[in-house]
């Protein structure tokens, strides 16, 4: 993997983590569980 690919994957992973994190905090999602 080149350095560019590594940065791109890192950014995608960070976006995914922040997205799932905000969903976890969402109270409406808690009600559905």
Unreliable residue stretches: none
Note the run of SSEs as H and E: HH
- So what's the overall shape? rod-shaped
DSSP summary, beta strand count:
0
Query: What structural class do you assign from the helix and strand content?
Result: mainly alpha
Helix content: over 70%
Rg calc? 14 Å
Tally of helical segments:
2
* % residues in beta strands: under 5%
End-to-end distance, in Å? 39 Å
Main beta sheet: none
Please tell me the overall pLDDT: 74
What does this structure look like?
The protein has 33 residues and is mainly alpha-helical. Helices cover 88% and strands 0% of the residues. The protein has 2 helices and no strands.
